[in-house]
Design a protein that fits this description.
about 260 residues; alpha+beta; seven-stranded mixed barrel; two-stranded antiparallel ribbon; about 25% strand
Amino acid sequence: MKAINSTFLTAGLISVPVKIYTAAQSLKVSFCQLSPDLHRVKQQWVDASTGKAVDRSDFKRGFEYSKGRKNNPGKSVEITDAELDSLSPKDPAKAIEIKEFIKEELLPTISIDKTYYLGPDISGERGYALFTQVMSKKDVCALAQWTVRGRQQLVAIRPYKNGSGLVLQQLFYSDEIRPFSDIGVTNVSVSQSEVNMAEQFVDAMTSRDYSPEKYKNEYAASILALVNKKVNGEAINITSPAPMSHMDMVAQLQATLNQLQLKTG
């Protein structure tokens, strides 16, 4: 696996050379835009004020400090690479600087944006092993800051699978997470009989192990099968989705439990 970055994991006077690897990738089926004649459609970028086409190679990074309105363009300033670099930490290695350790369970999952594998670089094996072993034993993760591509990121360093190594998780800052209260959830009372039935349902569907390999991207596979049929001129059978059930919650739970009991019985 090829590393996407090399840096240092630092804490106080400790410095461990590490490499960062992509941990996962999304396998998507991508579509294209077609004209009425089924020809590919090209996207063209134009100057919002003049309407003239602009090539991507001529793009400049900017910040719009005054929003534009209809027939009234906004006002922007250019931000150069050199100007962004001048704001970054002066450490040329742009190290991942550990600020503190916290117990694993204190880090909310909603804070996690992306996950990367963290591996030792040349001469970093001993320090890497030491961090992995101690953090696993103490059941802690490290909160750190790391500047990459001109942006200071909040990250967590965590032991991976029984102390086999470390992962780096990019986190959202607290002001980037929207309050749950914004969605307007109201308290609704439920009866004890409903709770009992729901508990039976959860117990019946609870697995002992996490086995993600049993789940496949069936939608993507269906799309590829559809494309293959169309390419080969085969007939396409279009079916309508079944209507959603309008039974009340208790009836839905009971019907589901009956279905599960038939499967296991």
